[in-house]
Amino acid sequence: MSRIAATFAALQAKGRKALIPYVTAGDPFADATPGIMLAMARAGADVIELGVPFSDPMADGPVIQKAGERALARGIGMPQVLDFVRVFRRSNENTPVVLMGYANPVERYGADRFVTVARAAGVDGVLIVDYPPEECEEFAAKLQASGLDPIFLLAPTSTEARMRHVGRIARGYVYYVSLKGVTGAGHLDIDAVAAMLPRIKAHVKLPVGVGFGIRDAATARAVAQVSDAVVIGTAIIQLLENCSRDNVAAVAGEFIAGVRSALDS
């Protein structure tokens, strides 16, 4: 059983929902990422999604786009992202880490090399936004063979055929994009999410996490009522933008602790 699957099984046994924060690697400071990850894990994050900076992040809103631009300007690429995971693993062997990003950085690094090095670094899952399941079965198989979970997106526009395909090759969990738009949008419709989740569950026998548009503890708690996990990214990045190097990890941990408390209440 993968570290992600074990985490969700343990949460389900306790009747709890997973909290999955997203941060961009190398932002807001080039060396702050492992400390931020550790603080979030201590505060109650169940899985951490670590964004790989890319120059054309088509699914991301302006906040995450700018975070990626800042990280790229500091020279953060795939080697540095994997180094951050290695540093995190020196202090935390339990919290799953998912790399989230786009095809170009993986292909420039080399897909086979990426799978090998990511696994050795301590990565647990990989979500490539622009790898549709129909076109990356070989890559997904390589991930699975190395013990990494291939994670896929579903959206309000996803067809039944896409859901079935994702249900067949995905592992770990599925990320449901809760709205038609980019990250950070503010028009989350909880009723629409609640209506969509049973359709997904008919084809996908994995936990379903919901992201996009979740900005605070209240919306996180509302989404958790109808999903298996809550994914929060833009709100965290906005919060950390103006932090000093000395307090950025503490601020991230405090935010996650507040959301964790709301999910468990």
What is the residue-averaged pLDDT? Answer: 94
**Please, how many helices?**
12
**SSE run:** HEHEHHEHHEHEEHEHEHEHH
Top-tier CATH class: Alpha Beta
Radius of gyration, in angstroms, nearest whole number: 17 Å
Distance between the first and last residues' Cα:
29 Å
CATH superfamily: Aldolase class I
Shape descriptor reads globular
Q: Architecture in CATH? A: Alpha-Beta Barrel
> In terms of structural class, how would the helical and strand content be classed?
alpha/beta
Describe this structure in words.
It is a single chain. With 265 residues, the chain is an alpha/beta fold. It has a single domain, classed as Aldolase class I (TIM Barrel), CATH 3.20.20.70. It is 49% helix and 14% strand. The protein contains 12 helices and 9 strands. A 9-stranded parallel β-sheet has the order 5-4-3-2-1-9-8-7-6. α10 links the parallel β8 and β9. It starts with a helix and ends with a helix. About 2% of the residues have low confidence.
Q: How do you describe this structure in short?
A:
It contains twelve helices and nine strands.
